[in-house]
Protein: S-methyl-5-thioribose kinase
Organism: Candidatus Vagococcus giribetii
Amino acid sequence: MSSFKYHVLMSSETVKTYVLTKTNIFAPDAILEVTEIGDGNINYVFLVKEEKTGKSVVVKQADTLLRSSGRPLDINRSRIEADILRIQYELVPEFVPEVYHYDDTMAALIMEDISAYQNLRYELEKKRMFPHLAKDISVFLVETLLSTTDLIWDRHDKKRKVAHFVNVEMCDISEDLVFTEPYNDYKQRNVILEDNQSFVESYVYSNQVLLKEVGVLRNNYMNNAQSLIHGDLHSGSIFINDEGLKVIDPEFAFYGPMGYDIGNVLAHLMFPLAKNDYFETDSSFKEWLEETISSLYEFVKDGLKQKMAAAITLELYNNEAFINEYVADVMVDTLGYLGTEVIRRVIGDSKVKEISQSPVGDKRLEMERVLLRLGIDLVTHRQDYQSGQDILKGYKQAKQKERGVTSETSR
């Protein structure tokens, strides 16, 4: 077993041998404690720690089967994750865990332990506020996304990277769960409260304008090899503390539209905002969330422009008119993908806790309808949103429409 010449799922005991065999982080006679810490459906994650020295690493191994259903999975996603983490670490080492070892046979990564950071999803549940979140995640987004485009990266190398990061199975999952099933339920997996069924039928399934625009966004997701994107950048993939943050789990990575990552981050700040409004009103938390959403959008938009002006060497691209139009297109994409993420988390079977764990009743019904109204408007009128504040205005207008109040305020 210690030779690790073929893929087999590791236990706590074999993880010890694996780490000692593949790295020199620990002494050969080190006494290691191994704890399984993963709670995902497609990977196994172990914390390996030596109490004597305090040294620790994390081992993440890809499974060949989906835990819940036994569906076969391609473990190539683990290689993709290791490679993008290494690229991102070179670009923004302060925001990405370091990879110490990876091998294709075991489909396992040995990487930096980030136990000093906490899962942002759970921190938001506790109403923890982080003043640096908007700035830090915007720097991560700008640096990792723009630097991997052929505006900055060598165009020949970028083309090779597009092929290297083809991620068929993981993209197939997103193409279905994000852009297909929420709009026709062809696999009969959507989960919709009974009293909202007619709303979804009318405003989503039968909304031809929405369906056309989702088709445009789906096609863009599948064919716009713009940037090396994380592909699943929600609050559960961000670990944070009072000093900084780390971004993990980029196994959905591929070359796609950078607005997809930006929109996903924004969407997963809208959910705690909505839950706070309907169930757990905390004015300070609401104010911080609104400021974070608005600032994040603006930081990314301004950061992209500044980075392009500073880093692009081709004169054809390094002019103000081109930069402004390029960034405007990215932000329009961002708003559309923000909308599709909101819609799919309300309708689809892969929900966020802010929705799935909220008590069923009138407040839950209204919250879901308001989020759907917002998502629909973001998709169908994404060109009309010009700022981070416009996202918040769109949310407020969705609440007004749901409550039968017609707003005369225009963006």
User: Anything to note?
Assistant: Residues 39 and 45 are 8 Å apart (CA to CA). The first strand starts at residue 33 and ends at 36. The two ends are 64 Å apart (CA to CA). The mean pLDDT is 95.
